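ingest -> validate -> predict -> emit
validate: passed (alphabet ok, no gaps, 291 aa)
predict: started
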Amino acid sequence: MDKLRAINLFVRVVDAGSFTAVADELNVTTSMISKEIRRLEEALGVRLLHRSTRGQQLTPIGEGYLQRCRELLISMDDADAYVQHMQSNPKGKLRINAPMALGITDLSRMFSAYMKAFPDVELDIHLGDESLDLIEHGFDLGFRASSQRFDSSYIGKPLTRFQYQVCASPDYLATHTRISKVADLKRHNCFVYSYFRGGNHWPLNEGVTIAGTLKVNSTLFMRQVIEDGLGIGFLPSFVAREGLQNGKLKEILPRTERPELTLYALYPNRRFVQPKLLSCIEFLQGWFAGK
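emit:
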């Protein structure tokens, strides 16, 4: 049994949530993966996973073993990174977590250019707005917008800054009462983004609590509903940009005080940073600087 391979499969199965997902990714059979993990359990003399028709669940020992396996794989990555660092030749897989809207609006073009510049780097990109722990889920790089400092286990490289914009369609504004001050928003149909930390409290001037008929976990979905004239949204500038440019959206209260966030490239703090990661971050910084 190749124990390191079995450990890697064990971690990947836990992260993916199923044997099938890992088998499809590696183009192997689920029975092969199951046999590898079963051999690992036999070698250890313990059960790591409880299996059922509904999936699998870590045993208490499996949870502790998983944590130590992650640390082992990170150490292996650091060892590989050291060799690559000495060779200065970016190659291998780079797992990236990025917000859905930013990935679709801006980052797809950037990563397309990056792939042309670094053809030996294989990108594995996960788009989603939920907050994920990069180390726990095995990501090399993540994108986060924040005005606060990061935990010491991560390094954040600033890429660009953006604002939020209060937006509505011209049709909505033409058929509803005028909005001349922040408090007027209380009388309008204002939409809530599920992952916005302030919830239904928008940080405009001293702040305003809004209400409306839509709560959604996608700012792109929200933008479409706003463009259809159904309400008002608090959108990041990279989401609102297209609608403002083509006239489907208008900005409301543009001179109102609001927060400004910094977009960071975030990665685990390790002794040796892989050349593929450094090359990607440098490319990101240059790309945003040239926008």
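The chain has a mean pLDDT of 87.
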